[in-house]
Structure formats: C-alpha cells, structure tokens
Amino acid sequence: MVKKELELQxxxxxxxxxxxxxxKQDLAEANSHVAKRIDYISSELYDSFLYDTKIVLGAQAFxxxxxxxxxxxxxxxxxxxxxxxIELQVSLQKQAQKGAVK
Length: 102
Known about the structure:
Elements: H1 2-8, E1 14-18, E2 21-25, H2 27-101
Antiparallel strand pairs: 1-2
C-alpha cells in the first residue's frame, strides 16, 4: 500500500512521521526504506513459514512412528488372540471326537 502511494507521487514531496513531527523526506530515500522494510517483512514471514513447516513435519514423523508402533502392537495382540481361538477350536474338536467315539 505504501509502495503504491509512493509510486503515485510525482512532485517528490514525502513526509515521514517522527514522533509528533512530520519531516520532509526525499522520494528516493522513502522508496529505499519501504523496499528494505518489505524485504525484511518478507524474510521474516518466510523464516516463520519454514519454522512452522519444520514443526508440522516433525509432528507428522512423530505421529507416523507412533501409529506404526500401535499398529504393530495390535497385530501382535491379534495374532495371539487368533492362536488362542485356534487352540480352543482344536480342543473342542478333540472333545467332540471323544464324545462321538463313546
């Protein structure tokens, strides 16, 4: 917004607010200050974006690892229960065969 306003200036009269006083400033100097400020803010936003991205990626890796651990745990429990069911089925079949033989 400020950059666009400075581009509209033709007579070169720009004032800068310093405390309670408006001080005349050269148009080229004002453009330079605005460009530096825009670069600084862009850099800060980019750095912030990178930091946030690293946090998100770190969280994703953590949760992915945790979910893999949980899934592995559940597979082991499922396998144990399946083996127990098979043992019970075999036991019942043996009992049924003993009962049929009598």
